[in-house]
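Follow-up to my post from last week.
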Amino acid sequence: QSALTQPASVSGSPGQSITISCTGTSSDVGGFNYVSWYQQHPGKAPKLIIYDVSNRPSGVSNRFSGSKSGNTASLAISGLLPEDEAHYYCNSYTSSSTLVFGGGTKLTVL
Amino acid sequence: QVQLVQSGAEVKKPGASVKVSCKASGYTFTSYYIHWVRQAPGQGLEWMGIIHPRGISTTYAQKFQGRVTMTTDTSTSTVHMELSSLRSEDTAVYYCARATVTIEYYLEYWGQGTLVTVPS
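User reply:
Got it. Predicted complex:
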């Protein structure tokens, strides 16, 4: 199972909006609505911020939103804050009943 | 509150095995699946596998099939992950993570991570 494809880096200024893509295949992202996103700050454990493609766990800011079209899922962050600077990873259930992560995207808030 | 406390850092020789433990508290242990994820230095997250809390089923990533064994001990609310035939590429932080209540595909609570070092 190959890792899902994410851009290595994205950047934005405070207050702006950005989008991170996550491309898979019909055997993972495209075949199931079990896509999730994780935020990881340096030296910390990851944090679940989106599940079921577009749902937010309790306590996660509504500035974070998720969507999916075909084999590509997307994470959008609006009103960028300095604390949003982190690595973001997508994850999907697969037809092999396993999970697969994306390679990760480093978000820089300029 | 939900807590997952992992065992301490390990240094192992190539070819050896390592067993990392993950002790859960603050919830009903037998109601939630546990995942294992690793992260090599400066690299991304890699899913290793999942275990039913009673140990009745496991699913491993193909990459680790034959080298990884996940077990549970319900008497101590502890999950173990053993990785054998270690090589330098296995140097990583290993995380356990508890799944969400509704479905086992999402990793809601994470341990603090255990660094396993395999010198080349």
